[in-house]
UniProtKB/TrEMBL annotation:
One of the record's GO molecular function terms: hydrolase activity
A GO CC term attached to the entry: P-body
Record Gene3D superfamilies: ATP-grasp fold, B domain, Survival protein SurE-like phosphatase/nucleotidase
Region (Disordered): 565-596
Residue ranges with Acidic residues bias: 565-576
Annotated Survival protein SurE-like phosphatase/nucleotidase domain residues: 72-283
PROSITE patterns: TTL (PS51221)
UniProt source species: Exophiala spinifera
InterPro entries per record: SurE-like_Pase/nucleotidase, SurE-like_sf, TTL, TTL/TTLL_fam
Coiled coil: none
One Pfam match: TTL
The protein, known as: 5'/3'-nucleotidase SurE
Amino acid sequence: MGPSTIYIVIRATNRELQAETPLQDVPFSTTRDEDDFVLATRDASRGDAYITTITSCQVFLGNEEKNQIKNLVVNDDGPPSNQSSPYVHSLIDTLQKAGHTVSVVLPHVQRSWIGKAHIVGQTLTPTYFRPGTLHKDDGVTSDRPFNDGGEEWILIDGTPASCVQIGLHHFFKDRGPVDLVVSGPNYGRNTTAVFALSSGTIGGALEGAMSGMKSIALSYAFDSREHDPEVIRTASKLSARLMEKLLNEWPDDVHLYSINVPLRKDVEQKKIVYTEMLQNRWHNGSSFEELPPEEDDRDPNTEEQIIREGGEGHTQVPRRLHRKFKWAPNFQDVRKAVTDAQKGDGWEVLQGNITVTPLVANFWHLPHYTGEIKLEHNKSDLTRESSSNTIYAVVDYPDPYVQPLILQGLRSLEDFSIQQISAVSELQRATIPVLQFTAYESLDFEHAMQHSKTSQVCAYVIRKALIRKHYLSNTVSTWLVKHPDSVLAKHFRPCVHFELDYAEFLDEALVDAWDLNESMAENERKESTGSKNWWILKPGMSDGGNGIRLFSSFDELQAIFEDWEGSDSEGDEEDETDHRKDEDTTENPEDASNQDHAMTSQLRHFIAQPYIDPPLLLEAYGNRKFHIRAYVLAAGALRVFVYREMLALFAAKQYQSPGHSGDEEILDLAQHLTNTCFQDEETKSSSVHQFWRLESTHLRADWKEMVFQQICDVTGEVFEAAAREQMVHFQALPNAFEIFGVDFLVDQNANVWLLELNAYPDFKQTGSDLQDAVVGGLFREVARAAIGPFFGAAYHGSSQMPLVRALSLGRD
């Protein structure tokens, strides 16, 4: 252990320190804080020799040597002033008392809202400032250095960024290299993008970072302009400790920090949290207020010239009043954005917490915008009919993970120029070619129906024959009646569909469920749970695995519904919600993570399906159950493609057959449910894999190709079944396309079973590592196979997304 530090604080009524002889042999230093004298020695081994000789003292022993930090302090509020810069003196005083070196270069006047600017062409002239009494405006300014050995700050007639440059390179050379640039404390918070992008305080820290220095922007968020010295002192002490910690633990990827400290009496009891900066903007008009107009005072010669020109036949230009504008931002936009977001730096400060926002000194580019930009020859944009190779696109996907990938995919269409617009209403004429790639509820289907040759949408209006579990079951069963040899007979487990409002009516709901009743009755006669036939219960209108349960008997099924009823506190007043969500269905993992049960008062439709046991298990992945997520493109009326890049999504825990569970009453669903939305981030990172890279030693070499071929066959068949037999519930329009997330399970014999189809699938579960390889590639293929051909481009197929079914439904 390194040398310790001993601090001795002696209360004294006079200003002279009396010490006996043993102290004189020990190297020590003293600083004075009002009536306190502080002595420090780095020789802990001699501490006992003199501690015993001093009375009326306090002794503080630290285990580590205190590091002296060389700080350069700048701000944008100027020198100490109770009116405009009330905090900087307190921070500097605190840093000095902590034993740190503090060099100070400040703007000579208020320079707020100036960002990281330098004033071009201006010669900067320093003045010299000697601080006075803390929290009093009695400092002294001089045009020349004081040269008397006393404390001296530098004032510069420039910006905070200029102060950093001057302080780093032109003053204080004798103090050695600067360890930390501190910009602040700002008079007010610097949270959210609106404040940060204009802040001179953050601008000073940015300049430090751009000069290769570790830099911190510090801001004090005040609730009152009554400056309580004790509150300010507490905030300064906390800030000094926090900055020292950040400096000692500085990560390589952080250029600067923005810290916001609320000025509250209990600030030391509040949390210190990492936060993101809230992205917000101005909304309510100008940030300037126009002052009352006034007449210009022209000189007599100018006035005479105007009069004569007006009298000699010249057309006199109407005189305009001289106008002035005053900076008067309306912060209502900022406050509303903070309260609406309920997260981020502004929200945390509003809760009284101290925020630390790590930043990079950059206006960061968006990584997905690449390649050449081609300018159109016709610059009239929306005012004239565009050339045949221009597509206007409304792209506003409800997932920021996906949005840039869609744009990247569209830009891969070499035959077209993509012109983004915000809404179809911006088109000068309704017949201009337009693509809508947005959330389902935002699609202008009316425009698409009226202009089927020029307007394309990214979803079919009606497709519940595929995406609703009970409708899907009916689609397959109806198809198999007419096509008993269909591939679906071997790749889809027949379902029992029933409707239920309340658990007490379960027996009535199952009156016609002969297969299910017979299976449960047979299970009752079996003594061994391992030989029972298990069923899986799925709510017909839930997503993300919500409400899925396993059961083998009527009592177990009854208990499931009774448990849900006990959790359903909403009552009957929301009974009608399912009708409004028939088609507007997005696979939403947040719903599943927030709610692991289904409400029978809202979800009346259920299916029960024989449970597929045992599934294919791979030793390399801990023998966990997995399902395959395939992305399927349906285009027009009707071509169906299967994207070759698929995901294998694993359950959180090792699989155990439900009949062999250690406790018959309790099933661990984490062994059976492969939906990643039920998993925490750490588990999820090991649960998502590329299908084609799965490791398997006990299977034949071509098992993956066999599985993929089965998936292609089943996918094509189920879409044809829906298109031909369920025309009311799946209407394949020629000017629509849609991406579905289709889930399959592989059993121990490598036979593929269709589980479900999801509209607007959750792409984000793919993760960042596979984002471009899987999802980015998907949208490039979608653009070439579905979007380009609709607007006239040729398509020659792709091995990455084979065509698995092509139908002619007579709707082109």
